[in-house]
Write a structure and sequence with these properties.
The chain has five helices and two strands. The protein is mainly α and 144 residues long. Strands 1-2 form a two-stranded antiparallel sheet. Helix 1 packs across helix 3 and helix 2 crosses helix 3. The longest helix has 16 residues.
Length: 144
């Protein structure tokens, strides 16, 4: 299984939000912390909001935060929401693709079973279990 970079960025952002679930974050803050393009992360944030995982607020004091407690969001539901537009293989596309092996292919059912096993495993893990806490602030050096 291979998740898109888009989903990877989304999971990183959600894990960071889960580390401080009552706090709002600016896109630029998360982008800088994880070395992600701010513009790319803005698209991720939009999709996460559209899927109901986060709430966003524009303007001064705005940002984004989890829409639900991190214990109530599984990795499986996040991956399903963000990866649904990407077929694992061509024949899984909505239009069936152009695979010449269809309809006698013996691989498709096994790939579908593997995908479901992968998703079932992700369904057993919540964001709370993967929370990425803030880095501890280093104390200022004391003058000696």
């Amino acid at each position: 299984m291979n998740l898109t970079l888009f989903t990877d960025f989304a999971l990183r952002a959600l894990m960071r939000l889960a580390g401080e679930p009552t706090r709002s974050f600016a896109t630029s803050e998360i982008a800088a912390e994880f070395g992600i393009s701010r513009n790319h992360l803005a698209k991720v944030v939009r999709d996460l909001a559209d899927a109901g995982f986060i709430n966003t607020q524009r303007g001064a004091g705005g940002g984004f935060r989890l829409a639900r407690p991190p214990q109530a969001i599984t990795l499986g539901e996040v991956v399903r929401a963000l990866e649904e537009r990407h077929a694992l293989v061509e024949c899984f596309r909505g239009d069936g693709g152009n695979c010449v092996l269809t309809p006698r292919c013996r691989l498709k059912a096994r790939l579908a079973a593997a995908r479901e096993a992968f998703m079932r495993e992700l369904d057993t893990t919540t964001l709370a279990e993967c929370a990425y806490p803030a880095r501890a602030k280093r104390p200022a050096p004391s003058a000696a």
